[in-house]
Write a structure and sequence with these properties.
The chain contains nine helices and three strands. With 185 residues, it is mainly α. The protein has a domain of 97 residues. The chain has a three-stranded mixed beta sheet with strand order 2-1-3, with no helix packed on it. Helix 2 crosses helix 8. The longest helix has 23 residues. The protein is globular, with a radius of gyration of 18 Å.
């Protein structure tokens, strides 16, 4: 009867401000907050439980401010019905290097086609060489300029203050659930 299967988001679960965000804004234990980048969906159960209708109702009524809207809504709505996959199925840039990668998800900002020192970039380039896109990807890396780097660094540094600000808003998933609004299915 789980709605989704996914891997806990290492960045959310291991950054103090993000831990607070998951728990005080989304309303889920930070160690159970999952990344939507690699996702199994139980579509039959989602239809049966009217997941889409519930999502749209929450979206239209409360307009929750979110860091990652798709991911935050999914975590808030499915929080009691998540199947936790082996972390190897969604290796992210902040996942410890000792976890064996089965599937690498280049999320956030350290993407190998943008930065020459991205974590686990050797895997990426091994497989990129086997595609028709290697030249284009290498050109994207070569085109990365100081202005783009500065823009991405600013976006990255803005995440933490944004998370802290969202916690303070009166209309969060957590606050509404405490007021008796049905958030989780």
């Amino acid at each position: 009867d789980n709605l989704v299967g996914a891997v806990p988001d290492h960045f959310i679960g291991h950054t103090p401000e993000m831990i607070d965000y998951a728990e005080q804004a989304v309303g889920i234990d930070s160690q159970k907050y999952v990344c939507s980048g690699v996702l199994l969906m139980n579509l039959a159960e989602m239809r049966r439980s009217k997941f889409a209708e519930h999502f749209l109702q929450l979206l239209n009524k409360y307009h929750f401010k979110c860091l990652c809207p798709d991911q935050d809504y999914m975590n808030a709505i499915a929080r009691n019905r998540i199947y936790y996959l082996n972390p190897s199925w969604d290796i992210q840039i902040t996942t410890p290097q000792d976890v064996d990668p089965w599937l690498i998800h280049y999320n956030l900002f350290a993407k190998p086609w943008r930065y020459d020192n991205a974590p686990r970039q050797s895997y990426f380039w091994t497989y990129a060489k086997q595609t028709d896109y290697e030249t284009m990807l290498k050109q994207q890396l070569a085109d990365m300029n100081p202005k783009e780097v500065a823009r991405e660094q600013k976006n990255q540094s803005d995440l933490i203050p944004l998370a802290v600000d969202i916690i303070k808003t009166p209309t969060t998933f957590y606050a509404m659930a405490k007021q008796g609004v049905k958030i989780a299915l």
